[in-house]
Structures are given as C-alpha cells and as structure tokens.
Amino acid sequence: MTEFLPLAKAIEKHVPDGASIALEGFTHLIPFAAGHELIRQGRRDLHLIRMTPDLIYDQLIGMGAARRLTFSWGGNPGVGSLHRLRDAVEQAWPRPLELDEHSHAGMAAAYRAGAARLPFGVLRGYIGTDLPAHNPRIRAVTCPYTGEALATVPALNPDVTILHAQRADRLGNVAIEGIIGAQREAGLAAKTLIVTVEEIVDELPPAMNGVLLPHFVVGVVSPCPGGAWPSYAQGRYGRDNDFYLRWDEIARDRARFSAWMGRHVLGTPGHREFLDSLRQGTA
Amino acid sequence: MTEFLPLAKAIEKHVPDGASIALEGFTHLIPFAAGHELIRQGRRDLHLIRMTPDLIYDQLIGMGAARRLTFSWGGNPGVGSLHRLRDAVEQAWPRPLELDEHSHAGMAAAYRAGAARLPFGVLRGYIGTDLPAHNPRIRAVTCPYTGEALATVPALNPDVTILHAQRADRLGNVAIEGIIGAQREAGLAAKTLIVTVEEIVDELPPAMNGVLLPHFVVGVVSPCPGGAWPSYAQGRYGRDNDFYLRWDEIARDRARFSAWMGRHVLGTPGHREFLDSLRQGTA
Amino acid sequence: MSDYSRDEMMTVAAARLLWDGCITFVGIGLPSAACNLARLSHAPGLVLIYESGTINTRPTVLPLSIGDGELAETAACVVPLPDIFSDYLQAGRIDVGFLGAAQIDRHGNLNSTVIGPYGKPRTRLPGAGGATEIAAQAKQVFIVMKASPRSFVPRLDFQTSGGHFAGRAASGARGGGPAVVVTDVGILKPQAASGELVLTVLYPGIPAEEARAAIGWPLTIAQELESMPAPTAAELAVLRALEARTAAAHRQPVRLPT
Amino acid sequence: MSDYSRDEMMTVAAARLLWDGCITFVGIGLPSAACNLARLSHAPGLVLIYESGTINTRPTVLPLSIGDGELAETAACVVPLPDIFSDYLQAGRIDVGFLGAAQIDRHGNLNSTVIGPYGKPRTRLPGAGGATEIAAQAKQVFIVMKASPRSFVPRLDFQTSGGHFAGRAASGARGGGPAVVVTDVGILKPQAASGELVLTVLYPGIPAEEARAAIGWPLTIAQELESMPAPTAAELAVLRALEARTAAAHRQPVRLPT
Fold first, then answer.
1. Do C173 and B127 touch (CB under 8 A)?
2. Of B281, C147, D134, D151, which residue is least crowded by CB atoms under 10 Å?
3. Average pLDDT of chain D?
C-alpha cells in the first residue's frame, strides 16, 4: 500500500545512485522540489528520462548527477537553451552525458508501452529524420496485414517516476487537474511511483472521468506545497515565467550556476527553506 | 464541420447498405434509437462491429440486417443468451452470419489502432485460446528488442460509428460522462461519426480533463432524448433491467420477436413514438 | 449454523479466499457477491475493478450488469475500457481475476464459446469477453462454477481461456493461472507438478464422494483434505443484507425516458 | 499603412494563409501569434491545438510556454499528450502544422538538433520535440523563419524533420510536407516537380534581390511573382492589442507559493 513519507525520506529510500528516473510533467506540475532533493542527497550516475528536460534537468545535469539522458526536446520553453545541458553535451562539463534522443511522438509511445508492460511501442514516426541513424534503439516492425514498415521504440519503464500533483487522499489516490502531458503513462510505467502533492485531503472530489492515479499504483505520497515552482499547479499558483528568463542568465555561466545551486539548493535543508531563500534577496 | 440532422436523415445520408458500422457503448449509452432507425430503413448486408452486441444487435441480426459480426462477447448482460444471435449462428436464421470473433482486449487494441490510424494493434493476448485457430485475422509480430512474439489485430476503422451521449453544444462538441467503454476510440476510428444526444446546449460545462469529442471529429449530431433506452444515460435515466429480462422472453421465439419488432419498431415512425408504443400496454 | 444454501457456501468460500488490499478483477454474479461480501466483512481495503472501467468501486448494492451506473458513481475513477485491459490487466496489476464458464477441464482450461464445432455449434455461448486475458495475465485466477458432469468435462469443445495447459510457461502468459476452483460441492486446486485439479477442501456435510460424482473426469482427491467451516452468522447476515438491498433497489420501477 | 515591422508583416502573412475552420497544430512564438490573429480576425472558427494536449483553445493572451494554464482554461478539453500525437497528428486530423528551425535547406528539410557533428556538436539545439511527426503527418506544413544565409543553408548539419526530401512519397509520411515558408523578406513555396523552394510572394518594399541575398542557396525566383499587400490597419490593431494584453498579463508578478 501507499507509503506516506517526507520527500527526503522518499528519495533516500527509493532512489539509489544509478537509477533510471523520470520526473514528468509537461510545463505544468514539474516536480522541482523532488529534483532539488536528488541534488541535496548527491545522487550520481542517474539515467534521467523526460520528454522536455526543462530547468530541473539542467540543474541535475549541471550538478553532475546524470550519466545518461532520454529525451525529445531539451530547451528552456519560450526562452532558449538549457545552458547546463549544452555544456554537458558540447564540453562534457562537469561530466560526459550519453544521449538517447527521440521525438515527442516516440517518447509518448515508449511511455505508453511501458504503462501497458508491452516491450515496445509502434508509431508511424521517425520519417525523414536522421534520428534513427544516431539512435540504434529506434527500429521497425512490419505490419502483418499491410506489409507497411512502422517505427518502434523500446518501452520506457523507469525504476522510479516522480510526479507532482494537486491532491492525494489518505489512501494514496492522486488526483491531477489541468495539462497532464505524459504523467499518467510515466507514472504507470514506473517500477516505483513517487508523487509529491500540494495537499493531502480526507476525501477527493468525485473523479468520475477525471485523471486519477489509484492508490495501488502509487508507491509513495510526499506532501510538498509549492513543489512544482517555478513550474505551476493549475488552480494553485501560476508559472513563474520571470524565473525561467532569469535562469537563462544564471545557467549561462558555470560559476554563477554553481554559486546559485550552492546557496539555494545545497544550502537549504528542504523545499520550504529553498523557497524562503529565494524570497530573501535576489535569486 | 458538424452537421445537425434528425436521426432518420443522418442514417439515410450516411449509412448505406453493406456499410461497416459500430454502435458502441459498454452497457451505458448504447445507441438503441439509432439501431432501430437502421431497422426501420431496412438496411441490409451490414458489417456490425461491437464489443458486446447486446440487445440492439440481437434486433438487427434477427431482422436480417447483418452479414457479418465483429465482436468479443455476445450475451444479454446479467441475463443469458442473445437468442437472435444464437439463431443466426446455429440455424442461419434469418440468414447466415459470418463471425469475426475476438477477446475484449483484442477489440480494444483494434479500436485504439483505428483511432490512431495505425494498421494494427499489439497486445500480449490470445494466449491459451483456440480463437486464433478460427480467426485468421489474429496474427503476431516479433518484438525487435526482446524477440518475444506478441499478438496483433487489424485496426478497426468502421465506415460509420454511432454513439449516444448526454450532451453536445451547437458547434458539435460532444461531452460524455460516466462509463465510457471503447466509445472514444470507436468514435475516433470511424470514417464518419454520428452521435445521438440527450440534449443540445448553448455551452458545455468546462471539460478540462473530462471526456469530450471535439466538433471536428464529429460528423453528425442528432438530438434524440431517451435514445439509449433500455440502456441508460448517467445522470438522466437508469438502465431498464426489467426490459433486459423481458427481452429474453421476446427474443426466444421467432414469431414473438417478429411481432414485437413489427409493432414497436417498424410500426413507429421514430424514437419518441417507439417509447410511446411501449408505454401503451404490454411491451 | 446450518441454515444456508449451497450458493451461500460457495459465495462465502470465495470471499474468504480474498485478503485485505487484494486487487480483484470482478465479473457479474457470484464473484461480484463474493468480492463485496469480503469488502463488507474481513477485507475493507479490497479493490474491485470491473472491466467497464470502474476502479475501486464500492457499490452499496450488487450490479446487475458489468456497467451499472452504481459502479461509476461509487468508483475512485472511471477509465476507458482499453486502459483497463492494457494498463491494469496486461500490466500485471491484478492480484485475482474471477472466471466462470460453461465447461472446465481437469487443467482449468475453460470454454465459454461454443458447444459443438465452432463453425456449426449446437449451442453458441457468449464468447471470450475479458476471460482470455484474465486467464493469462491476472496473478491468480479464481474460478467459480457449480459442479456437474456437464460442465466439468474430460474434454472441452473449445478452449476459450487457458488454465494449466501444456506449454503455459513458454506461452507469454505472465499470470499464475487458476489457483482455485470454488464449486458448490467443495474446492479444487491444481497439483503443483501436473496442474491437474484435485479436490482439496470439503464443505460441511458434503462428502468427497458427492464431489466426485459431480465432476465429469475421474477426480483425484487430495491426500490431506482440508475442511472449510460453514458460513458464520456474521457472514450470512452481511451477504443476505447485501442481497436484500440489491433486490429492493432493483424492484424500483424504471420510468421510460420522455 | 507603412508603419509596421517586418515581424508584423510575417505574422500577418502567416495569419492570412489560414482559413476559417482550419485545424492547426501550433507552436510557441510567431505561429501562436499568427493563429490567434487569424482567429480574432477573419477565421473565428480556427481550431488551435497545442502539443500540451489543449484542444480548440481560445486564449485571450499569448502563451509564453506550450503548456500555460491559460491554454488549459480556455480549451474545449485537455487530453493526454500521447493522444495528441497518436489520435490527432498521426491520425491525419491536422490541416496545418507550424514549424520553425535553426536551419532549412532548399527542399524544406529542417534542422533543430545540432550545429556540427551529432556526436560532438558545436551547438547543441533543443532537438525534435513534435517537429519530426508534424513534418511527416500534418496535411500541410507552414514554416515560419527569418531569412538569413546562416539559417537558409545549402546543406543541413542534421536533418531533424523532413521536407520534400527524395523518397518522401514512399516513406510512410502521409502529409503533404511544407506548403509554404513565410520569411521576413517574402514567401517561398515548393515547385511542384522538384519540391525546391522558390520565391513566389513579395512583400511591399522588399525587392526580390533582398530576398535572394538572405537565402544561403542560389534562390530561384518564380516567373510569376505575387505580391502580398501590407498589413491592414485592422490587422495591426488586433495583433497589437493581443500583444499588449499579453505583455500586461505577463507583467503581473507571480508570488512564490507558500
């Protein structure tokens, strides 16, 4: 049954060095607090999986936590580059980063296959692109009816998926509202699913056809208000577009990046203090 | 853009003899009124597709409208046999019926493939069963990563899918609440989608993550209050379990079946009059 | 407590095999009664999933169909049916799947498709529905069927769902297959080596010979026979109250929509 | 009306190419501005789909990211991202997909992956995202890019998305590929036979020679050149009001959550 643990305990218990780990959330509900906790605990050699690495993976990569990245779009949305990701790929700083690169459609098919515990996903995809020439995991099957060749991707089944959601109940059911990205699929594909939530409630509103991850697929729930900042939580707080712009400056320079991470992430014991440290003075 | 047509016009215009047609709805929201209209208009040689044929296909088959049936469970739910389906298969009455028989998991994969316009669906299915020996459409592919053999089904893309839903707006967006079965997939898989609805409203409530078929996938909306009876419409009217029991008696006998269909379906010009005819005296 | 029916004994026996927190894939009829009895007695955290897409539903009355509105209204959530089969059943998340059938053989293979040849059947049955993949992918399968030589047969007319058939291990089936067959005359379980169903549990007042007579193949009787106690007063009270609520609810007339 | 920027001309030109009822797959930036301009002027029934899963969204301000809350709140519905790519894009329901890139070649192939060799790039770009399948499966692709010899190149460093490449017809791509490339110096369209992009539409005040200078391959100029009129006062008013609303909305400070 679902465990209820503080975030630090959840990471300590369920995410070892070397794990494959997906922090999903498409612009919305990105589990930043969990990413910071991975950094605080000094995880190494992680295989990071995420459609859109975003700032949180820029931070993990810049801190040297990752050996490998499975992804389909690695930018700062609406702003530009992820400078730490670029530095790792272009200059191997602070360490080399292996790439397992896909398109969104391919990643989506891979998560779906993982959620269904099929070994591969099929799509009419990767047409007219050099990606398969550089990624031997992108292969093909022949349709047994039409003879058509279709692209395949191996299923993604992360050791751990971490999501952020608005609410869980005391049984461990998790309710998500708003843009959902591939969160449901990444959650169901995981060997262990950890969900940080804005709030734990006695009773969720009736879900009917809404998005709910039932308690028996949720390994751990960790209460973590504000845990998606600078991403957002529909109905709770907005996306901090300004921070996404500022990050472009912070991350552009190795020293400034390291100083910022040292002060705000390594220098704080948890997410509440992290947010407090940003409120004090210029982040 | 979506057409708004009376049901009889919609059937007349979009469902020719010989069409492949899926009336979906899993116990809930079964489009009975549309099935009756197919019978009134004397359609022939239809390829009927439906996971659970239910009473509506028992009626179509008993009236000789079908040449072929793609299905996965053909019973009267909670009651027993579909006697008209049995009579067609066992005695070829009123005409022979070709079977394309699957499991639920296989049908679901076939609809999903159809919705995504992939030529086939993949599942870890049809294991330990004689079904593939009798259905050459059930085949296999080899996983390009693990070498495992997995079952395949050809995509289902009905010429016409007919659904019943609680509400549409004036643009043609269709909102469904409650048990959804494979309605969404069957609707998206169709070449033409017709939806009968309890009500047309100026504005649907905000859907957010609810089930909505957007107007540009909906070919026709036909207002048809009570159109799911004796199935049900969540939030509107309940399932007429008693009628499902009575149907067992009506359908058991060829003459009684024919008389009932003659009086209530062929003998009424539309669904309102059909329901009226049932209110008058013993159905 | 001797004032109970054989159906009640079967239902109670099946309910007792379920544990708190067990994730079940439920069919209509006796399995639904057994699961809800378990949920309302010793296993309050039992998770009921119906193939209609209703997850962790907690109905106050028993559904008549697999897709009753009651199941949607009391569910934690309702998901599309394709998700149930791919992301829950195929994904290996079901602890116990319930099955019944028209015919069963000594290895727990089931027929719910046809009596007679497939192309020209004497009796056309409903077909596989969810059964084929439940049989292959649920971690355990509980079969619930009244015993009679007509249904417990030496040889199936058609194999709809696989039990402990030869080659199961290499077949791609990830589930363990039938763990138990609950009948009205006792409980059969598969022998570890052969997968053959043998009588292992007796009910009060029903001797092994009566069970043997109800099975259409030469039934092996386990060397160490267990006996299942009769339904307790508490169990019967919960079950009968559930069935009374169900009957009352279903007596409510349904008005034709206008 | 001559008081407009080249960006405004591009945006208006792209907007004019859209028709009422057109189903678009929209990216952030200029395509988003063009689609919303069209929706707020001549094409009120334009359907905007963003890859974040928001269908028929009608934002009052332009989103800064592809997944802004505004898009969810004003959408007809929000679906999982995998559905967008399988059931909408792959299924062939998108009339127009918008793309941009760091590099484009004369056949409309695009690079948004790397400058330099893939294994040791000089510049690592964000990558494919939705682009590869938009390029292959949307019925038409509209490319929007500022022209410069650095980006309109004879040869791509990496082909992320296919335009009118050799073999497209037999490749499994079901869409028609790039129909138009809207730049800040004019509009290029593919020649029917070769698929080569040629200058076909001029903007007011920008001669063909200026366009030729901005393109890194020897640009062919169509024999019959069309000219696109300048933005109207009405178009500019709608576009500037939209951008002003957007700027005002994004000036609202976001409070850190507590």
1. yes
2. B281
3. 95
